[in-house]
Specification:
The protein is of the alpha+beta class. It has helices spanning about 55-60, 80-90, 95-110; strands at about 5, 10-15, 25-30, 30-35, 40-45, 50-55, 65-70, 75-80. Strand 4 and strand 5 form a beta hairpin. It has one domain: Jelly Rolls (Sandwich).
Length: about 110
């Protein structure tokens, strides 16, 4: 069984530079993804229910490239490793298509910016 955790509004979920490999799936609420540049938060995206974040670090040995903060109260599925991700996809196979589509879009954006 996967862990579901609740975060209060304005709670930092993780920070840019952290060495965490956890992926999160949003069950409820909104999360801001941002980077800090010259002491300012630069918003990259606001994501909500059924979106996910933190997956890139699960597949590499790099630290977090951005920060994540709960904008509202959020409930998140916590996925700590690839085995748990496989378990989640096994329980919710329709979600695998969404993961592939979004990861492909994110990869295309990353390649375009290089």
């Amino acid at each position: 069984m996967l862990l579901v955790e609740k975060f209060k509004a304005n709670t930092i979920i993780f920070k840019e530079g952290d060495n965490d490999k956890t992926m999160f799936i949003i069950l409820e609420g909104n999360v801001q993804l941002y980077v800090t540049r010259n002491g300012r938060e630069v918003e990259l995206a606001v994501i909500g229910k059924n979106d996910f974040f933190g997956e890139i670090e699960m597949y590499g040995n790099k630290s977090r490239s951005m920060s994540a903060k709960a904008i509202t109260i959020v409930r998140l599925v916590i996925i700590k490793n690839r085995m748990q991700l496989d378990q989640f996809i096994g329980q919710y196979p329709s979600f695998s298509g969404k993961i592939l589509r979004i990861m492909g879009e994110r990869l295309a954006l990353a390649n375009a910016s290089l």
